[in-house]
Sequence to fold (195 residues):
Amino acid sequence: MGPNSVFLSLFLLSLTFTILLPLYSSSSLPTQNSTDLISKTCNQTGDYYFNQTAAYDFCVASLESDPRSSSGDVSVFVEILIELASSNVSHTYPYIYQLYNETSEFVMKDRLSVCLKMYESMGRELKEAHYSLSIKNYGGVIDNMGYALDDTVTCAEGFYEPPVRKSPFSQQTSVLEHLCRITLAIDNILVKGSF
Fold:
């Protein structure tokens, strides 16, 4: 991922946060202890991510964007990331649907059709991941986030199949992929029971 892709991904993530932040109280800012836990937690994301520095920065920005991160609880971090991924899906799906309805070119319509199915599936999987987290079934979180990640990759890779087409929402899909990967890495802390 080049510097422009990272910048654009972070821009899209900040746009997502702008949408989500009004939903939460902004009265609590991360404390030093929660900042230390965020840092320690995000350092674990390199195990599941191809670029540890980008993963760490993306993880910290994602978690610190939500005032609930100040609670200093790893399960809250996973919840925040699942909700960010869900928000991404719920904002991107209507855009894909609109593109699908407006596109007459067969190959592009086919690619969009696959992505519509994958995003529908991701919506269900993210709800299941959230439910699994609520009952402390951390293995269920891993399963459902893994399925969501697979769906994200399936959608993205479809545009690279011949004849190649440029995805009109590749940045949203990239952000979603990063959120899934980071959530998997952090949820693994809960599965192991420790850092």
